Amino acid sequence: MSNGTPLLEIRNVSKFFGSVIALQDVSAFVRAGEVTCLLGDNGAGKSTLIKVLSGVHKPSEGEYFFDGEQQEFESPRQALEMGIATVYQDLAMIPLMSVWRNFFLGSEPTKGWGPFRRYDSEFAKATTKSEMAKMGIDIRDPDQTVGTLSGGERQSVAIARAVYFGAKVLILDEPTAALGVKQAGVVLKYILQARNRGIGVIFITHNPHHAYPVADHFVILRRGTVYGDYTKAELPLEQLVQMMAGGADLEVLQHELEQASQEGGAEAEALAETADAIGSELEELGEKADEEA
Amino acid sequence: MATETAPPSPAPPQADERIRQVSGLSRLMARPELGAVVGAILVWVFFAIVAFENNFVSWATTAAILNRAAPLGILAIAVALLMIGGEFDLSIGSIVGFAGMTIMVLVTPADAGGFGWSLWPAILVALVVALVTGFFNGFLVISTKLPSFIITLATLFIFRGLTIALTRARTNRTQLGNLDEVEGFALADALFASQWEVFGARFRVAILWWIGLAAIATWILLRTRQGNWIFGSGGDANSARNVGVPVNRVKIALFMTTAFAAFLVAVIQAVQFTGADTLRGFQQEFEAIIAVVVGGTLLTGGYGSAIGAFFGALIFAMVQQGIIITGVDGDWFQVFVGGVLVIAVIFNNYIRQKAAAR
Ligand SMILES: Nc1ncnc2c1ncn2[C@@H]1O[C@H](COP(=O)(O)OP(=O)(O)OP(=O)(O)O)[C@@H](O)[C@H]1O
Ligand SMILES: [Mg+2]
A8-93+149-292: what fold? Predict the structure, then answer.
């Protein structure tokens, strides 16, 4: 594993939307050939941080370094041209457009000269199919619209696209969130594959079991600030699970729910069941963590 | 370390068992313009039967239909591009009036309140004026982030009002004529208003403009990267922006394209009628939108075709001409047009769902 200088780094970045503080004093980095995992609960600021990294938002405060040089991106296109590719949570794909048109959207290959310069659709179709095949995904028909693909297929089109366009840094916003166990596994495999090619991967998730097997480095966000920053060696899975599940927070929740159930009637009983379920889930998570550790 | 680093297994290069052989017919079904092509045939057959006695099936009627469809089709093709790009332009009818009167005021002799220019410089100025109005529309939509429906509804009134107010202030009239006496008219007449006789029927050169624009627009949409950007901008502007599509530039260019089409129609009509009227182009934005929607383009953007708009305009003109020659009271025309619009949209939806479920 490389331990050189970071490929991409932010220092003390904050982002405000009017009075909303979405990010406050956040620092993070990724090295080439490593996976940095950004974890955080809903609304922690993960997507906002991604948008700062990919050039969609300008940070309100703080510094941004790429390849050791300070950068200020005017548009996501600039970041993309430097090799910072992002697969957004909403995938940045157009449902009504075909797979191959989506694959090359914004970077269309052309052939011919002057007024006859045209979109090289044969090349685009063939490349889409072969790039997807390289990732082990067999798209049936490049003319199929993206809206009709499964979630995992859509995710892999987006990742394959980023890798194809020579990403040096690959930013993935919750690529496994909407996927079944098996498809999530496939996506995790692509992440490792990208890493092994020397790409620096920033992987956002709120599932510690997805994060742990692939990450070299964890940054945990909470309420817009960095709550923890660990290397894998420093952080056993058990502890990560505890942090992510909100450890203490969740116990408080369970307590509250139990209390409510004593006060109320039938409605409260349902709540009590939920509380029990959460309690046993917490135990299970702990056991699982023990097994894997 | 618990990470797994196995290389991916290469995909087996076998035929995919999940694809069934799809016939050419059902591939055709997935095209947005299919509804309009079938619709055009149905409407033609309908009138060929109902209005056979009235010579619907004749060279003269065919020429009349095409001559009617051409200016509408020119507008509709540009509007189709804009609507695929996710925006509306209600102001094109007003731009037709504005561009036409710009030409006429400039060429009208100074003693009649005009400027006494020759025709070609006036056409050039009208072109610039139209492109500026289109840019203005696009710029307002982009910078205010308001729906283009509202913005261009406002500019519909602004441009029409400017046309009437400026023309009246300068010339004290609402109609200007005698364009054929202006220097440069002969060339303009040849380019924009000449006719060919085929089997005794007169076909106007505007038909060629219409066909040519349909071909260029189709080429742009399907065969250029800018076409891909148009679909992307209309399909999901944010996603397109995130992968680097210059969405704002695309949209402004599309508004300028509809304004250009309006300018072209204004020139064709001014030369053909050797004059213009401040009310020229009135309600043509609606006819163009009808043609585009009948042509299978989605109102919500991201899906559609220029060929569909071409056939949409053809259907509109056939209905119009069919009603005229059958001698049905012209007062009923608008009822008929509304009916055709509803039927066409239902039919298109049905086709699209069938195509999606193939
Ligand atoms: N454009 C915006 N304007 C105002 N507030 C915003 C904006 N974008 C994000 N926020 C706020 O910033 C906070 C962080 O949002 P963000 O989308 O980054 O969360 P997240 O960690 O990605 O959550 P999730 O796991 O649900 O995707 C939220 O409270 C959100 O409401
Ligand atoms: Mg998010």
Answer: Rossmann fold (3.40.50)
